[in-house]
Specification:
The protein is an alpha/beta fold. It is about 35% helix and about 10% strand. A four-stranded parallel β-sheet has the order 2-1-3-4, sandwiched between helices. Strands 6-5-7-8 form a four-stranded parallel β-sheet, sandwiched between helices. The longest helix has 20 residues.
Length: about 400
Amino acid sequence: MSAGTGMKPPPATEAHLAPGALVPAASPAAAHGPEHVSEPTAYDAILLAGFGGPEGQDDVIPFLRNVTAGRGIPDERLEEVATHYRHFGGVSPINEHNRQLKAALETELAARGIDLPVYWGNRNWDPYVPDALHEAHAAGHRRLLAIATSAYSSYSSCRQYREDIADALEATGLAGELEVDKVRQFFDHPGFVTPFCDAVAGGLATLREQGATNVEVLFATHSIPTADAERSGPAHLELGEGGAYAAQHKAVAQVVMDAVGAQDVPWQLVYQSRSGPPTQPWLEPDVNDAIAALPASGRDGVVIVPLGFLSDHMEVLWDLDNEAMETAGEHGLHAVRVATPGVHPAFVTGLVDLVLERIRATPAADRPARTGLGPWYDVCRPGCCENVRRGFGPAVSGLQP
């Protein structure tokens, strides 16, 4: 067995299956691949799986190499994205946000008498997932429950986390020694939705105070390749254009608008931060294009809601606070960008509730979900969230492939 690697691990060549198991690295309750587990499970620790971000100017390009590994993107092109980070001293706020979330989870767990340590590991920067797994193993823990810092279904927001955990298990030599399950996607859990309800209600009130009388709400999330979006979620659901990724966002947005009593306020789902070549179709409309079109519809105000994000990381600070707000100003619109969940008490409480779901094997009918799409699966279904370019890599917490 090797120690934590101190770097992003290479792709795994296989995913360890226990005798008779259908799900790699799974606890006995999840090993046969149920949609929702029905057997209580005693976990030893929690793995908080983050995206990661640079914490200094020298980190920026190595970090972006990790994010784009396997795509053959030259450093000159990476430097174009690096300017966003360099604008903030080369420091992404995402690691600090995860430190705050880790501390908030630990406080909530302790307050509720749940004795589970929280280990934090990132996919793309220090501390890496392999280091977190090694630390947990060295402390004597053998069964972990992962919380990914992403709420929705797609390759980049779910399956890639599951693949990276499989990569880490192989890189550390801990495949076969550690069991790692993952909580369900929580896009429509009340703990995730409530902070956005609070934020949108506040944003609408702010624009009214500023004198806006014809407001539109733009729910923003990260754009992804259209081909990947079509394959997000299990194929058998047939959720239409944009797959589960778009359907989940739209369902949550409607819940938020209904919850704040804004049924008569127009809204739309928009996308940001596309990074693919112009020849590759990605989800649209872009947030800036949508903002630019608002005055023609008689709008004088816009509420920008970062619905796809857990915290105010770089793509919120740059793409929304900088570019989108600048676009709104150029078109004479009153504008406000509302908060992400961050460490909102309802969000932190909700994450611990998700942990308890798995510990107690809460029946699906008793699990809270604010949309008709949920509660989502404990164990991802076969063929879920394929990356068209890469295919299916070994992954935990899901039926193969």
